[in-house]
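#structure-requests
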Amino acid sequence: MLKINYSGAILEAGTDEAGRGCLCGPVVAAAVILPADFEHPLLNDSKQLTEKQRNELRPFIEENALCFGVSFVDEKEVDKINVLQASITGMHRSIEQLDPLPEYIIVDGNKFKPFKEIPHTTIVKGDAKFLSIAAASVLAKTYRDEFMEKIHQEFPMYNWKQNKGYPTKQHRNAIREFGITTYHRKTFRLLPDQLKLDI
């Protein structure tokens, strides 16, 4: 059973991101403050849910949260500041959109930088422990998946509609065959043997 609250603060935000391990596209972060009576039988860590369940949860979360924010850090910025900083930057931008601002922040994972003067705690596998982080993980994942499906239209040969930019065998084969796109992260090791390639 996921818990509704960690800190005891009424305005507690959960934050999470999606897309860190991808070879292309943005890192997308979300932050959510849920009411104390929030419940939904499906809500869990987004990785445990089917795409259909996540898409069903997203409007429910958006309608029933006290507030939420979603932000995109595009591949160029990921390349510039590195993927960990991109995750933290994205979370900060999402929290900034919250109105009211939270009194406490719980963060999925083990890395974060303080946001304003608001106290925070990082929680490893937090998206499987706390509802607000799980809700943030669902929003981050669904917004990112939607974006990847959109850019799939531009570059269907990479099959982002299905792999969402993750390093599947098929995605890597497409990079070998067609090279990289403007959406690929240039600082990532896109192919296992790329160090030997004469790029």
